[in-house]
Structure formats: structure tokens, C-alpha cells
Design goal:
heterodimer; A: mainly alpha; MetI-like fold; two-stranded antiparallel ribbon; 14 helices; 2 strands; B: mainly alpha
Chain lengths: 340, 333
């Protein structure tokens, strides 16, 4: 199945606070003071002991590698992040000193996340509600589910290419720059529209899961006092499922700010905002720009600018944002209500 | 739910509900239509390239980089557009990176999830679970950056010897940007996904089955390996399929570390095979996307995208099929 299920699973610990408890409770742990002979591996066959040792080894390696990555990024980030980087525009320059900061990419990330969520969140919420509360006819529900799963599993680069196709149509010319009747097709609108597609499956999955975890008697109680189905959903079910909804939204934001392929192709690879037209805000949104991910991409040794210090600084900021989102998801999930 | 829908039927006269259902349904249909449009458009744009090359599109023959150049320039000159494209080196690179990373991370993810679910002490368990989620959410461009600045120079300086370089110097230059770097980082990126799905599957194994085995005097490792892992097999398949889809679609990291030439690593080269450069499909699309303005080139790029989309859809189908037996255990992975 698609990545939707994957992300659901990856974030499983966060979501599971609203999921029903597993059918069989784990057995009571043996008293810590006295380990039974069965727990000691001294008497096992050597293959079994080797397996156990390998499991320990890989588990600890995994931990060490992750810690190494995060600590390395933090160290490099703290070495290279300077406050003025946050407030200066990127500039064309050969050395690290000349090339300016990442104000535009930082703003770009925020703009793109806001715009994409403005599309993906209402859509995802509606689809999740429909799937969980209405879902008729059932074949349509099944088709929707598999489509959403396929969306989750599709490479984002395909969405990016599709974006260039539709936003170059004359009918959508008002969303990007036009030059002699040729529609450029790259703008914040185009990027945000396609980015919303990669956030959508996460939101749908989480909303649906949250709603389905609410036991039927809650709905019945609401119907019994005369509330309509939609009023029940709005006033009772969605507030109760809020932790899941918030989790889904934040996972979506995390996915959006981490994506590079769509931004590289659909936002045009200009590091500074390049306005199209004279209207102040609309011009920016119709124009091209960059986000932190494309800034890192361009500043990596394989990119066009090749200034690794800048790349590390921007990467550090990006990673911090992702970590903060991760933490927020944990908090949101922990505050979730348990249905028992 | 059954009861709820009966309640609904009783209240059919209510307008707001019907209106809401219609509106939500319309929205769902609109999204479905949009996705349908996406699929149709991608395949329609891809068709000329497939049409001109037939199954030769997937086969070997010539250097795709040169062919891309030919295709790109053919639009600018006043002559017939060229479509000849044989993508085998790119497809081979995709297969190698994907399968390599999936194999590597399958083995490690299996052991790590067994460790997390059954053998890890409580303290380590409490750290490992958030760490898995954290690693899953690190943007791929950061993995790419680390790969380019740490792993690639390491491979270039310490793994590849001058003898290696000389032995293939007339075919390809070895610089550290390699299949090996791509596979290693990619497996680190997809392992968290696998661990999450595997652990969910392993946790859902009925406790009584394990207890039964333990009660017969089988030790904990063998019990978990023979009963737990075997019962969770559908979860293993589902997780692997998911991770494969993610690996297939990975673009930016691979574009950064695998070298950016459409070279097919040759297993006959021995160990050098692993440090030869390559370039998978998604990375190729990213690096040629600036050439979308050329009509025949656009068809060629969309053909690559269509191959990716088709593979993703097939994987999605396979994952669905693998998940069916899991419903027996009440696992929702």
C-alpha cells in the first residue's frame, strides 16, 4: 500500500493514543529481582545467542547512527548559523562571505507550507470525514481509499511534472508569469498546489483514524438528543478527534517543508523571490523563489552554488523545524483522549 | 456504524445532512477526477516516446545521456524530432539502488524491530521508538548533504584505490559518487519505515501463541523468531512494499550522491561494481527537468515519469494484496 499507511505506521506511537488498546494485554513482567533461567541466554544454542547478539548490535547501531546524524548537523549548524543569515537575502557571490543569507528561502518555506496546507487541510478533512462518517456508495469509498494510498506511494517528482503541465495551460496563466503569451508555469501557486497532494494522504489517514477510534455510542448519544449527522460530526466527533487531526496536519507540514523535487521544478530555481507583476503580495506568490530545501540543494557541492557552510546552516534550520514539528506531534498525541 | 446508518435512514427527511453528504461526496469525486486527470495526462504525454521506441525503450543500446542531448537539440533545429531512447542503464541503476537498499534495510529492520518489540530493555525501547520516527521525518536533502560531504569523500579517498581508478579509467571515472553511497544512505532512509510497520505487525502477534511456545520450554529468541516473525509475515511484506515504493521515488538524495551519469554499473568489474556511478529514474527526471521546453524531450521525461508512476501503482496493489491476510490479526498497518 501507499506511503499513507507507512506514515501512519511511522507515527504509530503518536496516533496510538486514540487507538483502542491491543486485544491482549502483555503478561505481567517477571519480578526484576529474580530473573528466571529462561531469560538468561547462557543455556541457549549458539545460533540463538548469535541472533540475539545481532539484534542488540543492530538496535544500538541504529541508535548510534541517528544520534551521529543529529549531533553532527547540530554541531555544524551551530558553527555556521549566524543571526544575520536570517535577515539577509541570498546574493550571488563566490565566497561564503559574499553570498548572503537565507531570508528568502526561510520565508519561502513558510509561504509554501501555509499555502499548501490551506489547500490540503480542508480537502483532507472533508475526505477523511466522508470516508469515516458517510462512505456511501461503498465502491466509491473503496476507490477513494486506494486512490489516496496510490497518491501516498507515488514519487513526488511525478506530481511536479504534472504541475508543469497544468500550470502552463493558458487558462491558469493568472497564477504565474506570462511572457509574450507563453505561460511560465512556475510559481508559489503551482508549487503549493502540487505539494498539497503529498500532504493530503497523511491528513486523510489521520483524520479517518481519529474518527474511527471514537466508539459508536458517542455518535448514538448525539443522535439521541436530536443532532443531525453533520452536526454530530462537527460538534462532537471532530472536537473529540482533534489530536489526530492536529497530528495529521503537522505530519503534512513536515512532509511539505521537507520536499525538494517539487520545489526545484515548480518554484523555479531562483534563490531570491522574483516578483511577477506589480501587485505586492500577489506578485510574489505569482513569481518564483526558493525554500530551505532547494537552498540546501543548491548550496551542496553538487549544486549550482556550492557553499557547504551555507548548506549546513540552512540544513540545521530545516532540521530544527522538523524536530520541533515532531515534538509537537508527540505532545498533541499525548494530549489525545483515550476511548475505552 | 451499522446502527448509525440505520439512524440516518430514519432521519432521511433532514436536509442539512443530505446537503453535507452531497457536498463532501462532490469534493471526493473532484479529487478523484483530479488524480485520474494526472494519470491520464502523464501517460498521454509519455506516449510518443513509447510509441517511437516500442519495448526498446526499456532495453539497452547507446548512452542515454547522449540520446537525451540528441532529443533535446532535435527540437531546436528544423528537422524531425528524434525520439530514440534506450533507458536500460537508468532502469538498471534504479533496480540496483532500490533492490540493494531494500535488501540491506530489510535485514537490519527485521532485527531492529524484533529487538524493539521483544528484547530491548524498557529504557532503550523508550528512546528507540521516537528515534525511529525522527529519522523517518528527516528531509531527504539533508541525507543528501551528509552523503555528499561525508560518505562520498570517504568512499573516494579510502575505498577506491588508484589501481581501481586506472583499471576502469577508459570507461568511467570513479570519484566516490557511487552506487554504494546511494544504497547505504537510501537504506538508512527507508529502514525507519520498515521498522515501524514490522514492529506493528510483531506487536499484534497473539501473546498466547508466544506464551504457548515459551511454556514448552523453547527459549525466547527461538520462540519469537519461529512464532512471532512467522506470524507477522504479511506485515513484513507490507512494510517491504512500502519501503520499496519510497526507495523508488527517492529523488533528491540519489541525484546528489550517485554521480549523475547514466552509467550501468557492470557486475563483471568485481568489487569496483559497487563504487561505479549510476543514476536512477527519478534523479534523471530531476536533472533533465530544465529541458522540458523541448517538445520531444518533454515526452521522454514524461515517459520516465510514467514508468515510475506505473511501478508505484503496482507496488500499491501488491501492498494491498499483502495486507489482506493481516486483517485476520486485526493489524492495521
Amino acid at each position: 500500500m501507499g506511503g499513507e499507511a507507512a506514515d501512519e505506521a511511522v507515527w504509530g506511537a503518536g496516533v496510538s493514543t486514540v487507538a483502542p488498546p491491543p486485544p491482549t494485554a502483555p503478561p505481567p513482567a517477571p519480578a526484576p529481582a529474580r530473573r528466571s533461567a529462561r531469560d538468561s541466554s547462557a543455556s541457549w544454542r549458539w545460533t540463538d545467542r548469535l541472533g540475539l547478539a545481532f539484534a542488540w548490535f543492530l538496535g544500538l547501531t541504529f541508535l548510534a547512527v541517528t544520534a551521529a546524524i543529529v549531533i553532527y548537523m547540530m554541531v555544524q549548524g551551530i558553527r555556521y548559523v549566524r543571526p544575520e543569515l536570517f535577515v539577509t537575502h541570498p546574493a550571488a557571490g563566490v565566497t561564503e562571505r559574499e553570498s548572503g543569507g537565507f531570508l528568502d528561502p526561510l520565508l519561502g518555506t513558510v509561504i509554501v507550507a501555509l499555502m499548501a496546507m490551506a489547500i490540503a487541510f480542508p480537502l483532507g478533512l472533508s475526505i477523511g470525514v466522508w470516508l469515516s462518517e458517510f462512505g456511501r456508495p461503498s465502491w466509491l469509498a473503496r476507490v477513494t481509499e486506494s486512490t489516496i494510498e496510490m497518491l501516498a506511494g507515488s514519487p513526488s517528482i511525478v506530481f511536479a511534472l504534472f504541475g508543469t503541465l497544468i500550470f502552463e495551460q493558458g487558462a491558469l496563466a493568472f497564477l504565474s508569469r506570462t511572457n509574450d503569451g507563453v505561460v511560465y508555469g512556475r510559481s508559489f501557486f503551482a508549487a503549493a498546489a502540487m505539494l498539497s497532494l503529498i500532504a493530503l494522504p497523511l491528513i486523510v489517514a489521520n483524520v479517518r483514524e481519529g474518527l474511527q477510534a471514537i466508539p459508536g455510542h458517542v455518535r448514538e448519544a448525539s443522535y439521541a438528543v436530536g443532532k443531525t449527522r453533520i452536526a454530530t460530526t462537527r460538534r462532537v466527533l471532530l472536537p473529540a478527534a482533534r489530536p489526530s487531526v492536529v497530528t495529521g496536519a503537522m505530519l503534512g507540514v513536515g512532509r511539505i517543508i521537507g520536499d525538494t523535487a517539487i520545489i526545484v521544478i515548480l518554484l523555479g530555481a531562483t534563490l531570491r523571490f522574483t516578483e511577477a507583476g506589480d501587485v505586492p503580495l500577489l506578485g510574489t506568490l505569482k513569481g518564483t523563489g526558493s525554500t530551505l530545501t532547494t537552498f540546501v540543494y543548491a548550496n551542496a557541492p553538487t549544486g549550482e552554488i556550492n557553499q557547504p557552510e551555507k548548506a549546513f546552516a540552512a540544513g540545521f534550520v530545516l532540521l530544527s523545524m522538523v524536530l520541533a514539528l515532531n515534538f509537537a506531534v508527540d505532545v498533541a498525541a499525548r494530549r489525545g483522549r483515550r476511548w475505552s | 456504524m451499522a446502527l448509525a446508518s440505520r439512524t440516518h435512514r430514519a432521519s432521511r427527511g433532514l436536509l442539512p445532512d443530505q446537503r453535507a453528504e452531497l457536498m463532501l461526496g462532490a469534493l471526493v469525486c473532484a479529487v478523484l477526477l483530479f488524480v485520474l486527470l494526472l494519470v491520464v495526462f502523464v501517460f498521454k504525454e509519455a506516449w510518443p516516446s513509447f510509441d517511437h521506441n516500442g519495448f526498446g525503450w526499456f532495453g539497452p543500446g547507446g548512452n542515454p545521456d547522449q540520446q537525451v542531448q540528441e532529443i533535446y537539440t532535435s527540437a531546436n533545429l528544423l528537422r524531425r524530432p528524434v525520439y530514440t531512447f534506450h533507458a536500460w542503464p537508468i532502469i538498471w541503476g534504479t533496480l540496483l539502488t532500490t533492490l540493494g537498499a531494500v535488501t540491506l534495510s530489510f535485514v537490519s529492520a527485521l532485527f531492529v524491530s524484533v529487538f524493539v518489540v521483544e528484547f530491548a530493555p524498557e529504557a532503550i525501547k523508550r528512546i528507540l521508538e521516537p528515534v525511529v520516527r525522527l529519522l523517518a521525518s528527516v528531509p531527504s536533502v539533508i541525507f543528501g548533504l551528509l552523503g555528499v560531504l561525508i560518505l562520498v569523500p570517504f568512499i573516494g579517498n579510502h575505498v577506491i584505490t588508484d589501481g581501481n581508478r586506472r583499471s576502469v579509467a577508459y570507461i568511467v571515472s570513479l570519484s566516490g559518487y557511487s552506487l554504494l553511497a546511494g544504497v547505504l544512505i537510501l537504506s538508512l532512509m527507508i529502514a525507519p519505515l520498515m521498522i515501524a510497520v514490522f514492529s506493528d505487525g510483531l506487536r499484534a502477534v497473539p501473546r498466547g501463541w508466544l506464551e504457548g511456545s515459551l511454556g514448552l520450554g523453547i527459549n525466547r529468541w527461538r520462540t519469537f523468531w519461529k512464532i512471532g516473525v512467522r506470524t507477522a509475515r504479511p506485515a513484513l511484506v507490507a512494510g517491504t512494499v512500502l519501503a520499496t515504493a519510497r526507495a523508488l521515488g527517492e529523488t533528491v538524495m540519489l541525484a546528489m550522491v550517485t554521480g549523475g551519469v547514466s552509467f550501468a554499473p557492470n557486475p563483471a568489474d568485481g568489487l569496483i561494481f559497487f563504487v561505479e556511478p549510476t543514476r536512477p529514474l527519478a534523479a534523471t527526471i530531476l536533472q533533465t527537468a530544465e529541458e522540458l521546453t523541448s517538445e520531444p524531450m518533454r515526452h521522454t521525461i514524461f515517459a520516465m515519469a510514467a514508468v515510475l508512476l506505473f511501478s508505484a501503482a503496482m507496488l500499491s496493489l501488491a501492498g494491498w494484496a499483502a495486507k489482506q491476510p493481516m486483517k485476520r490479526y486485526g493489524v492495521r498497518a
